[in-house]
């Protein structure tokens, strides 16, 4: 179940980020969102993923789990590279990817970087934002599915959390 990449637009992903703004964020919220994402992945996909949630200011790990056996050390490499994009530019990795595609440029070209191993502009990194708080307070990363699905399971998980906690 891969969502076609053509259904993603910069404007729609930006709207998703705005719709996923939380009222608060702490370790309890991270735990609940992480468990929602993990359970949803287990129900919808057979491929295992890593679910990672951390504070933005210190990268303090708040939630980490796999959806099942079969993840690889490479998944954590992807997690850290996606996290780096969210923390540096304050947006989802999917939005950054789409923004670069509209310019027909790579991250390295636009930001004059020599080492592409630090950042990954592949869907699955998402900023945690709180209403009334400027900037990113946390980051959620999923690694293991097609990038469109990595992105969507985060958005769906946050929306489910918000529906449960109006």
What descriptive keywords fit this protein?
alpha+beta, 13% strand, 6 helices, 166 residues, 48% helix, four-stranded antiparallel sheet
Strand elements, count? 4
SSE arrangement, N to C? HHEEHHHEEH
Could you say which overall geometry the principal axes of the C-alpha atoms support?
Answer: globular
Mean pLDDT: 92
The biggest beta sheet is recorded as: 4 strands, antiparallel
Fraction in helix: 40-55%
Order of strands, widest sheet: 2-1-4-3
Helix-and-strand structural type: alpha+beta
Over all CA atoms, what is the radius of gyration?
15 Å
Amount of beta strand = 5-15%
Number of helices: 6
- pLDDT < 50 runs, ≥5 residues: none
Termini separation = 29 Å
Descriptive report:
With 166 residues, the protein is an alpha+beta fold. The chain contains six helices and four strands; from the N terminus they run ααββαααββα. The protein has helices at 10-19, 27-44, 73-89, 93-103, 107-111, 147-164, and strands at residues 50-55, 61-66, 125-128, 138-143. The protein has a four-stranded antiparallel sheet with strand order 2-1-4-3. Helix 1 (10-19) packs antiparallel against helix 4. The model has no long low-confidence stretch (mean pLDDT 92).
């Amino acid at each position: 179940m891969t969502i076609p990449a053509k259904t993603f637009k910069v404007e729609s992903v930006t709207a998703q980020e705005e719709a996923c703004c939380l009222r608060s964020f702490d370790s309890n919220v991270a735990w609940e969102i992480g468990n929602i994402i993990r359970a949803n992945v287990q129900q919808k996909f057979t491929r295992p993923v890593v679910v990672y949630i951390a504070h933005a200011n210190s990268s303090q790990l708040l939630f980490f789990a796999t959806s099942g056996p079969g993840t690889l050390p490479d998944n954590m490499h992807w997690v850290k590279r996606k996290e780096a994009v969210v923390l540096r530019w304050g947006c989802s990795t999917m939005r950054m990817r789409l923004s670069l595609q509209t310019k027909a440029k790579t991250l390295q070209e636009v930001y004059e970087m020599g080492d592409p191993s630090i950042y990954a502009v592949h869907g699955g990194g998402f900023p945690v934002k709180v209403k009334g708080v400027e900037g990113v307070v946390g980051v959620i990363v999923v690694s293991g599915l097609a990038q469109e699905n990595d992105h969507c399971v985060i958005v769906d998980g946050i929306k489910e959390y918000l529906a449960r906690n109006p």
